[in-house]
């Protein structure tokens, strides 16, 4: 096994140890933070598929987080509280939105792609802002967390954390297989040289669109979990700044490495909690850290780890 | 038998006719070199033959079928592969992965999401054969971006061969190579001669006259002469238009 899966598994194991640790030191809030970390790690992984492996810089990825979150609110309003059904609904909505918006935006490249994905993200944002049945821009709170097999197990923060962690492990495992399978190699090929791909008989568009749809669906699952974590759904989840934060997570962790995407999300959420505890101007400190990473380790945390482990190419 | 038949091909950028009523025929099995001064429209011609660029008018027939309107991917499937003047590879992938990706392009669906592609023996074996054919067998695990220029040119050739082409379009395969690297590549092309039909664009006249079965001379978007290397050398129009002092 190469270094990258080892690093990812180490991260998952470390996270699994958080609830007992939280119980030991008597700080249950640690588990809540770890849940948030795992949720955003799923979102960051999904973005890494298109941004890191396909070189498609989507600036509207938070829309999928929102679609997943609203799937919970809409389903719950109609009496559907099962987590799996809600995930399927969120992923389905995300697939439709990704297929339509992707079919249009993937006809452009570079800055135009960034702008058009941003535009689609904003369209989704304002759609939910004007959806007064679900609280408009105030959003709406959920009566309870989703159910699993008809039981309200998720009301327990620790149980909920392990469900989220299991989803993260599945997302990581699935994406790890995908990027090392035929499809992943083609996607990486389109990142490396579109012209060369055409010259050996590929049509990049269809692979990019498929990756775009898969990515959106996984992110929607993160959205379903996010709504459950906060027990609240609002358009703020899909604000364009949130899309930016997801990109920042990848920058911090290392674009194009799944373990890096996970680490980036963990560190970002962790720093947010830590710095926000010190000062309300925490974003300044976070900006400086980001600056340092981009300047001294452009490949992010993953690049840093790789440099510290010479000879073990991830 | 004629494999490639180009008739009255035209491509203009504004007032500039880059391809100006060009006709060309390439017989199955031959190595057909196209020479011409800078700006004659050689790379534009390759781009139109490979489907990268659509001509304004004219037809391209390949193996009897009209392929003028086909995109690059369809032409590759029909058996038309190309190499690039400016090395166009996947720098982050190893030599083997570069070639295996080309093999994969003609070996079943790429919408497979689970099985590790690195362990697909059928892809790797064929890719290794292509690498061995161009003398890169011992470089298989090297990232393309970390190879020497000459090795990259060899890899370009291996990737094109992995498409199993009936016709290989070679756009200045010797571009930027030193004398020793060029010698290796000329040896490779000589070995391929007869196995696969080739259209070769090249500035290195020594290589062209050593390799080509037939030579066509492209000047201002038109073929002004076509013939054996010997006949082209003697053609007064060619001497005036292009070869000039170099061939004297």
Architecture blueprint of SSEs:
The complex is a heterodimer of chains A (314) and B (248).
Chain A: H1 3-16, H2 18-25, H3 29-51, H4 62-77, H5 83-105, H6 110-129, E1 140-141, H7 157-180, H8 182-192, H9 194-199, H10 204-230, E2 232-233, H11 240-253, H12 258-278, H13 282-296, H14 300-308
Helix pairs in contact in A: 1-7, 1-12, 2-3, 3-7, 3-10, 3-11, 3-12, 4-5, 4-6, 4-10, 5-10, 7-8, 7-10, 8-10, 11-12, 11-14, 12-13, 12-14
Chain B: E1 2-13, E2 16-27, E3 31-35, H1 42-50, E4 57-62, E5 65-66, H2 72-78, E6 80-83, H3 95-105, H4 121-133, H5 149-162, E7 167-171, H6 179-192, E8 197-201, H7 205-211, E9 214-219, E10 222-227, H8 229-234, H9 236-247
How would you describe this structure to a colleague?
- The complex is a heterodimer of chains A (314) and B (248).
- Chain A contains 14 helices and 2 strands; from the N terminus they run ααααααβααααβαααα.
- Chain A is mainly alpha-helical and 314 residues long.
- Chain A has a single domain (3-308), classed as ABC transporter involved in vitamin B12 uptake, BtuC (Orthogonal Bundle), CATH 1.10.3470.
- Chain B folds into 2 domains: 1-79 and 165-248, Rossmann fold; 91-164, no CATH class.
- Chain B contains 9 helices and 10 strands.
- The model of chain B has no long low-confidence stretch (mean pLDDT 93).
- The chains are: A mainly alpha (314), B alpha/beta (248).
- The A-B interface holds A 177-178, 180-186, 188-189, 192-193, 195-203, 207, 210 and B 50, 52, 71-73, 76-77, 81-82, 84, 88-93, 97, 100-102, 104-106, 109-118, 120, 159-160, 162-163.
Structure in a nutshell:
By secondary structure, chain A is mostly helical.
What pair of chains forms the biggest interface? A-B, 24 and 38 residues
Spans of at least 5 consecutive residues with low confidence of chain A: none
Mean pLDDT of chain A: 94
| Overall number of domains of chain A | 1
Overall structural domain count of chain B: 2
Count of distinct strands of chain A: 2
Proportion of residues in extended strands of chain B:
25-35%
């Amino acid at each position: 096994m190469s270094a990258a899966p080892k690093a990812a598994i180490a991260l998952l194991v470390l996270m699994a140890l958080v609830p007992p640790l939280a119980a030991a030191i008597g700080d249950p809030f640690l588990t809540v933070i770890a849940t948030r970390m795992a949720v955003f790690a799923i979102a960051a992984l999904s973005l890494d598929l298109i941004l890191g492996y396909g070189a498609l810089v989507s600036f509207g990825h938070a829309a999928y987080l929102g679609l997943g979150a609203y799937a919970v609110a809409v389903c719950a309003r109609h009496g559907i509280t099962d987590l799996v059904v809600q995930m399927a609904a969120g992923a389905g909505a995300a697939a439709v939105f990704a297929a339509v918006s992707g079919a249009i935006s993937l006809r452009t490249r570079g800055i135009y792609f960034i702008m058009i994905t941003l535009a689609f993200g904003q369209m989704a944002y304002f759609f939910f802002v004007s959806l007064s049945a679900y609280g408009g821009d105030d959003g709406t709170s959920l009566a309870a967390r989703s159910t699993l097999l008809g039981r309200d197990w998720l009301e327990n923060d620790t149980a909920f954390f392990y469900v989220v962690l299991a989803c993260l492990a599945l997302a990581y495992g699935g994406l790890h297989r995908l990027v090392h399978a035929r499809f992943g190699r083609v996607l990486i090929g389109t990142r490396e040289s579109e012209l060369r791909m055409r010259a050996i008989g590929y049509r990049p568009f269809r692979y990019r669109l498929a990756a775009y749809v898969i990515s959106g669906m996984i992110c929607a699952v993160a959205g379903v979990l996010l709504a459950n974590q906060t027990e609240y759904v609002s358009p703020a989840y899909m604000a364009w700044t949130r899309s930016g934060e997801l990109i920042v997570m990848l920058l911090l962790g290392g674009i194009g490495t799944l373990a890096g995407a996970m680490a980036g999300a963990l560190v970002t959420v962790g720093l947010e909690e830590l710095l926000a505890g010190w000062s309300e101007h925490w974003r300044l400190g976070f900006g400086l850290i980001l600056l340092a990473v981009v300047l001294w380790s452009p490949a992010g945390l993953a690049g840093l780890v790789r440099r510290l482990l010479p000879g073990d190419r991830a | 038998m004629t494999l490639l038949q180009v008739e009255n091909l035209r491509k203009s950028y504004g007032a500039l006719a880059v391809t100006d009523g060009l006709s060309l025929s390439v017989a199955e099995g031959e190595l057909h070199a196209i020479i011409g001064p800078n700006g004659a429209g050689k790379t534009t011609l390759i781009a139109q033959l490979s489907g990268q660029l659509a001509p304004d008018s004219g037809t391209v027939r390949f193996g009897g079928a009209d392929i003028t309107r086909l995109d690059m991917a369809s032409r590759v499937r029909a058996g038309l592969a190309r190499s690039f003047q400016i090395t166009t590879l996947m720098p982050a992938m190893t030599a083997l992965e570069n070639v295996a990706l080309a093999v994969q392009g003609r070996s079943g669906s790429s919408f497979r999401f689970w099985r590790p592609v690195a362990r697909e023996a059928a892809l790797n074996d064929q890719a290794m054969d292509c690498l061995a054919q161009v003398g890169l067998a011992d470089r298989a695990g090297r990232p393309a971006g970390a190879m020497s220029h000459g090795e990259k040119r060899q890899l370009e050739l291996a990737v094109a061969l992995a498409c199993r082409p009936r016709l290989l379009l070679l756009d200045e395969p010797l571009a930027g190579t030193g004398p020793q690297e060029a010698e290796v590549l000329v040896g490779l092309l000589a070995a391929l001669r007869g196995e696969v039909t080739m259209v070769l664009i090249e500035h290195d006249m020594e290589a062209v006259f050593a390799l080509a079965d037939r030579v066509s001379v492209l000047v201002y978007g038109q073929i002004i002469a076509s013939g054996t290397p010997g006949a082209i050398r003697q053609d007064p129009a060619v001497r005036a238009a292009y070869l000039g002092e170099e061939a004297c």
